[in-house]
Amino acid sequence: MIATMNISKAKDNDGQEITPPYAFTSGFVSRSYSFRCHIAPRTAKAESLIRQMRIATESVET
Hints:
With about 60 residues, this protein is α+β, with helices and mostly antiparallel strands. The chain has one domain (about 1-60). The chain is about 30% helix and about 15% strand. It is built from 1 helix and 2 strands. The longest helix is centred in the C-terminal third of the chain and has 18 residues, at about 45-60.
């Protein structure tokens, strides 16, 4: 699924990119702290595929 998306930096109210801080949790498993980003489908075909998957998933859950 992630291959169908473009993931980029979020933008502030002035349209400037927000660079997330380089900060991670400590411990046995380390991960980055939460940060804002922009996620959008790469193509119209990818968007259609994602919508179809959502519809299929919703029909299975109900």
